[in-house]
Amino acid sequence: MPSAARAFARAGAKVFLAGRTLAKLEVVARDIASAGGIAETAQLDVLDQAAVEKHVDAVAAKAGGIDIALNAVGMVHVQGTLLADLSLKDFSYPIETYTRFNFITAKAVARHMVKKGSGVILTLSTPGSKLTVPGVLGFCSTCAAIEAFSRVLAAELGSKGVRVICLRPDAIPQAQSKGTHAREVFAPMAAAAGISVEAMLEGGSAHTLLGRFPTLDQVGNAAVFFASDHAGAMTGTVANLTCGSLTD
């Protein structure tokens, strides 16, 4: 999530960006550097446990520990297909993949945070965890699993001084540009409804309490807040960043 990386850098954090597409990471790193911040990049497959642990160990050694970890990985998966036509593979893929990389990254950073006696792990979910609409069985199950994972992880790590917060934004229109992961996910659902992605987002935003969806900057700044001491009393919870599409 580039907006979160920039927000953390503005707050004074040294940011380590890792992902499979190095060119995209380097664009963000250059933006951070041009604004006076510090950022480093590394190419990494988040599903490779050994590689993730090696990378995290290297970052911890260089930075003197790890204070905050944000897992904002996205994978293209099937949406808009009803149970009768949904294969077991398409149903289970997002559940297995998203829970796997959340486990891998959390386990890798938790070792270092527990050693210091402090740290914040931020996970990412969506309103899918509470939706009751057809065609998103795998995705909604995935989001519910991430939120449950975050709660139980918080219970395990709380006594060690580590907090866990799950961020739950709704659709972010700025993230729906052509070629992005978010658009690839929404496109089949929009096509099934016979509308464009833009029309689907516009219709959805009209039903939020604020009449709009969150912006990238709002989500990024929220991540900084929840990772800061200002939110030091919070753990094991979901931060509702949906602009009121869901109420808790």
CATH fold-level topology of the domain at 72-241: Rossmann fold
The helicity comes to 40-55%
Average pLDDT, rounded to a whole number, is: 90
Question: CATH superfamily membership of the domain at 72-241, which one?
Answer: NAD(P)-binding Rossmann-like Domain
Which CATH first-tier class of the domain at 72-241 would you pick?
Answer: Alpha Beta
- How would you characterize the largest beta sheet? 4 strands, parallel
- The amount of beta strand, in percent, is 5-15%
Element string (H = helix, E = strand): HEHEHEHEHEHHHE
In the CATH hierarchy, what is the architecture of the domain at 72-241 at level 2? 3-Layer(aba) Sandwich
**Cα end-to-end separation:** 25 Å
Q: Which stretches are poorly predicted, pLDDT < 50 over at least 5 residues?
A: none
Rg from alpha-carbon coordinates = 18 Å
**How many β-strand stretches?**
6
Number of helices: 8
User: What spatial order of strands do you see in the largest sheet?
Assistant: 3-4-5-6
Categorize the overall geometry: globular
Sheet/helix structural class: alpha/beta
